[in-house]
Amino acid sequence: MKKILPLLLAMSLAAPAYADTPSDVEVLHWWTSGGEARSVDNLKEKMKKEGYIWKDFAVAGRAGQSAINTLRIRALSGNPPDVAQIKGPEIQEWGKLGFLASLDDVAAKQHWNELIPRRVQEYLKVDGHYVAVPFNIHRVNWLWANPEVFEKADAELPVTLDDFFVAAEKIKAAGYIPLALGSEAWQESTLFESIALAIMGPEDFRKAFIDKDTALLTGEKMRETLLTFRKMKQYTDADSPGRNWSDTTSLVIEGKAAMQMMGDWAKGEFLAANKEAGKDFLCIPAPGTANQFSFNIDSFVFFKNSNAGKTDSQRTLAKLILDPDFQREFNMSKGSIPVRVDSDMEGFDTCGKESMQAFLRAAATDNLVPSLSHNMAVGRASQIALFDVISRFFDDDDVSVDETMRYIRAAVLADNL
Ligand code: BGC
Asked: Is the pTM of this model over 0.90?
């Protein structure tokens, strides 16, 4: 990103005037699965009621990687959308390049400083100014289970990693897929992240991936993480390569697979299929991570625009996202918890309530970690490199642990290049 700075700036200055009408607001995002689309439709409706037309620019796939690639191309050619789904350290990258509009006035009117947890605010500000609005807090370290399959296999829900392997053997013997996984790099990294959290613990996890402690990145706990990760492969199915995450969740919904380790956007798929939390499906912390909370915050940023009408529509959208009713409605169907500290959790299902309790507990006990596989812990350069290394190790049994640890170290350091 740093190297293309002059080009990006030149292109953005040369950007043509916007030809579309001020009441349009073009939004680039990747919420396209059944559960995601249902959640974002609510916001589209609310914008319509305010008199604005939401122009959808949805790019499916790879947990946003495809959307972000499209965004880069559009921004480079001087034609960014009005709004885009960007999160984590990448907000800083775009903000520092001067692309993002300040939201300080909306933030002041709506009292964001009081409403949004401090830890979350850090991600939303560039040089002290708000440039992003948050939707939610997703927990990544969850395990989704089909209770009927567990019962038929006479298996226990796993609390530890050892329990996981005991249960997986029984489920396999009973003829079901123990672990639903789509072998896309980001899905594999999501699984890797939960195992790393269980084995390394939150402190070493943060030291390794955020402080870039090279001894930890190539140490014994990393070795154990990689070996455990690879051991899980035998419990996935032959159709795993390339399968997207929501089709993978469907395997658990339909009772073909027993478990999926995935962030709580997976709950959105169960709900969209009319399944009930605690009855048709269960949510438990990923094995070995009961006290921990790997957080992932969805947010929108707003591209600078000289058209006053546009600015109004952008500001209206920012305000709606933090509206208390929208926070409840959106997060109930999306699977996440509201980001507003004053949110009422009454009416949320058991998974939502448990997630909120887990978040508060983890925040109070220093057990919160930014998600490694969902762009919260590292910048884009490291993220892409990590996806490649982790996926290569999982997909190819000939790739050694030692070589992978060296590459993980290099990937984590890639942001510094
Ligand atoms: C986003 C979620 C989204 C998921 C799958 C994650 O990175 O934070 O909002 O549902 O990807 O598309």
From this structure: yes
